[in-house]
Specification:
The chain is an all-alpha fold. It has helices at 2-14, 17-32, 41-59, 62-78, 86-104, 107-122, 131-149, 152-168, 176-194, 197-212, 221-239, 242-258, 266-284, 287-302, 311-329, 332-345, 355-373, 376-392, 400-418, 426-437, 442-463, 466-481, 490-509, 518-541, 544-560, 568-586, 589-604, 613-628, 653-658, 669-672, 677-687, 703-717. Helix 12 runs antiparallel to helix 13. The N and C termini lie far apart (99 Å).
């Protein structure tokens, strides 16, 4: 027995492979000396299981881990509640589940590891010599579950546990570097999630402390070098302090020397160093940095074969650098390679963190290649990708406006290619016309969507292709989203959308084209998303214009998703909620009556057991009580049925338009086009070669505005 423990201690210090093999051999021999029923068998099972698990960590042979599982389970049966070796059995079995999660990625294994570690921690209370170790390992697995599921509670608890462990591991303690490193990782991830710079600063401070305790020769020094470099690089991205970036490059290079060919951490070091050189190129413009970034990026990608979890990130970052070199040197093969890499990156499943960036960059590269070579298929694919990108960033996402802006750029390019007007200067005329509406910011992008929606609606009226109308509705919702109710052109956009919705609703009422197309579904989802944003803002700021907007646009949703659609009951319910909110503020009895009618219809379309049935029933009862008892003026607790958002709206288009006369005297047509909505319409009509006709929704009183704009824009463009 004494020889085996000496071997185990020597193995722990030096990790010599021969000692581990001998420890396993002696462990098996010892187990034979403790047959079932003999005291001490449980301890022998635990020791042999521990050796086998350590060999698994070195050689990754699953048979060793499976056998360690069986041995730890057998030991746990011999160590019932109250047995002094039970915490050791729980802890050992938890480590096996944690290793299995590393190998297979099955979350159930991680959940089981956390459950067992909590049980072991309870049996190792404060004062127990292994209390700190249990704190650290439970914190580690909670952090890994956060990395998988992004539940902040796990990360916050991991930070608390690591801090508690750090207090038990003073200077010189063997577990102190582990606690410092784990706590640094947690703060780094919390910075990623919440953006609080104090977390990043704390991660850097803890990372430096951990690195000092892992001097040259320490087996984990390379990990500490990489992680500290990663955090310094991110602080550079935030604060643009060159010292941080230079230090990050030095640390990554030092780590790379410790991670030779074949080392599992080498791809991470290569990729991190490539990212730093790319950042330095962005900051200083030295082409050598970009060349180095591309070389390192290729090397990292080679070490991340198909199936590697970080292969998609390597695809994206390498393609990003190749595009930058193309923009600098105009070598088309760089752009071609970037496109191929990004096509491969598209294989990421929907919702993958890198999917949005990959699609966005691919659309940009295709647009560049179209500009360079004029291949129509490239700009068409870019526009198709542009349609996909906003779906990954729903209304309210901080990156959604950028997605819509880029989509508007691609669509405008396609529009320029398709529209050639004989007698008015051909391509030159189109380019000058497009310059009036070329998106320079999100407000201008809204103008592009306005014009394109009008053009598609006009095409629908001529050719009766329902797909054109659906796309017009979708573009109109994008325009609406980029200029919420406080924007002066919002009412103009709402009225145009109303025209399109009425046309589509007529088709639905006639039973023709009754199936919801992809574009129409996207449009309705956009309306619902806008409604959610407007209702949230109304509840926070109490601006009645937001509430009115939600009501109007949700009426559009009901026109486009009629009885028979799966979401119709929830849409009825959500419109009723909006009306009740307005009744509370304005005491308009008609709103209460309509809310009662809508909720009754929603209840009729639901059946007991549906998730919305009880909600509608409770709400209807509350509304009726409000009708019977005027003193009940507020619904205190109303839940939303819909998994979609509530819907938006706005009123007063006619008042808005009639109050604006296009008599802007500025000499800049570009400025004119953003000071009056009629200019957008005028550009559209000129590009469509139809200055005699008028869009169907203009009244006689609005023609003056339109003709004035036509005159000014035509004068500028000719």
């Amino acid at each position: 027995m004494g020889l085996r423990y000496v071997l185990q201690a020597d193995m722990t210090i030096r990790e010599w492979f021969t000692d581990l093999e001998e420890a396993i051999t002696l462990g098996r021999a010892a187990l034979e000396l403790y047959p079932p029923g003999r005291p001490g068998r449980g301890m022998a099972l635990c020791n042999l299981a521990s050796y086998l698990r350590k060999r698994f960590e070195k050689q990754a042979v699953m048979h060793d881990l499976d056998e360690a599982f069986e041995l730890h389970r057998a030991a746990l049966e011999l160590h019932p509640s109250g047995h002094p070796w039970r915490p050791c059995s729980l802890y050992g079995l938890a480590l096996c589940f944690s290793n299995r999660y590393d190998s297979h990625g099955v979350v159930a294994n991680l959940e089981e590891a956390i459950t067992l570690e909590r049980a072991a921690l309870e049996l190792r209370p404060p004062g127990h010599p292994d209390h700190g170790i249990s704190l650290n390992y439970l914190a580690r697995d909670l952090w890994r579950r956060f990395m998988k599921q992004s539940v902040m509670h796990d990360l916050d608890e991991a930070i608390e546990l690591h801090r508690a462990a750090l207090e038990l591991h003073p200077s010189g303690h063997s577990q102190q570097p582990f606690s410092l490193h784990g706590l640094a990782l947690c703060h780094s991830n919390r910075y990623d999630n919440q953006g609080v710079v104090a977390d990043l600063e704390e991660a850097i401070t803890l990372g430096r402390a951990a690195l000092e305790l892992r001097p040259p020769g320490h087996p984990d020094r390379g990990i500490s070098l990489n992680n500290l470099a990663h955090d310094l690089q991110r602080r550079f991205v935030k604060q643009f302090t060159m010292h941080d970036l230079d230090e990050a490059i030095e640390l990554h290079r030092a780590a790379l020397e410790l991670h030779p060919s074949g080392h599992s951490r080498r791809p991470f070091s290569l990729h991190g160093l490539a990212l730093c050189h790319s950042n330095r190129y962005d900051n200083q413009g030295v082409v050598a940095d970009l060349e180095e970034a591309i070389t390192l990026g290729h090397a990292a990608l080679e070490l991340r074969p198909p199936g590697h979890p970080d292969r998609g990130i390597s695809f994206y970052d390498l393609a990003h650098d190749l595009r930058k070199r193309f923009m600098k040197q105009s070598m088309i093969y760089d752009l071609d390679e970037a496109i191929e890499l990004l096509r491969a990156a598209k294989l990421h499943p929907s919702g993958h963190l890198n999917r949005f960036s990959s699609l966005h960059l691919l659309a940009l590269c295709l647009s560049h290649r179209y500009d360079n070579q004029g291949v129509v298929a490239d700009i068409e694919e870019a526009a198709a990708l542009g349609h996909m990108v906003p779906e990954l960033r729903p209304p309210g996402d901080p990156h959604r406006a950028v997605s819509l802006y880029n989509l508007s750029c691609g669509l405008l390019t396609m529009f320029q290619r398709q529209v050639l007007i004989p007698g008015l200067g051909g391509v030159k005329f189109v380019r000058r016309a497009a310059s009036v509406l070329r998106p320079a910011n999100n407000a201008n992008a809204a103008s592009v969507f306005h014009v394109l929606s009008l053009r598609l609606n006009d095409k629908f009226r001529k050719l009766a292709a329902i797909a054109d109308l659906d796309e017009a509705i979708c573009f109109a919702t994008y325009a609406l989203e980029l200029q919420l109710p406080e924007r002066r052109r919002y009412a103009f956009s709402v009225e145009k959308l109303a025209v399109f919705v009425r046309a589509r609703a007529r088709r639905l009422g006639q039973g023709t084209h009754s199936n919801e197309s992809v574009m129409l579904g996207r449009a309705v989802d956009n309306l619902c998303g806008l409604g959610h944003l407007l209702m949230d803002r109304f509840r926070n700021q109490h601006a009645i214009t937001d509430l009115n907007a939600a009501i109007t646009l949700y009426r559009y949703v009901l026109q486009l998703r009629r009885a028979g659609h799966a979401s119709h009951p929830s849409n009825l319910h959500n419109l009723a909620l909006c009306l009740i909110e307005r009744f509370h503020d304005t005491a308009i009895v008609g709103d209460l009556d309509e809310a009662i009618s809508l909720e009754q219809k929603a209840l009729e379309l639901s059946v007991p057991g549906d998730p919305g049935y009880d909600v509608s029933k409770d709400c209807l009862a509350t509304y009726l009580q409000m009708k019977i008892s005027p003193q009940v003026t507020r619904v205190s607790s109303i839940r939303s049925v819909a998994t979609e958002y509530e819907a938006p709206c706005v009123t007063g288009m006619r008042r808005y338009c009639n109050s604006r006369v296009a008599r802007n005297t500025t000499s800049s047509c570009h400025q004119l086009c953003y000071t009056t909505p009629w200019s957008e319409l005028a550009v559209y009509m000129l590009l469509s070669r139809d200055t005699s006709g008028l869009p169907c929704f203009l009244t006689a009183g609005e023609k003056v505005n339109y003709y004035c704009a036509i005159s000014k824009v035509a004068q500028y463009m000719t």
